[in-house]
Amino acid sequence: MCEKTDTNRLKPGSLVMVKGFPCKVTDTTTAKPGKHGSAKVILKAKDILTDKMYECTFHAGDMVDAPIVKRVEYTLLNIDEESLEMLDGAGEIKSDVNLPNAEGHLVDVRKRI
Q1: Which residues of the chain are modeled with pLDDT < 50?
Q2: Domain range holding 99?
């Protein structure tokens, strides 16, 4: 699910869809209007799922997609080999989550677990 947001309102920490991926903005720069049209907003953003960096340019004032993100916290109950057993705020047990891989950007998360 996505909502629309104005490129002029984007700042570091904002969420935006870049090339179809949900990203968190890390840096914004505005290029002044010149002889080739309107001002441009240049974004650097990091994919919230894979940590991959993206850079893209939008026209100032364009409406772009922004992902709707919901944060849910769980209490870890048990680790059974590679799967986690967790408890949510409503008291429901969730046991269909695997430990993050020992490689990639989630290595630190795995170590903390």
Answers
A1: none
A2: 75-112
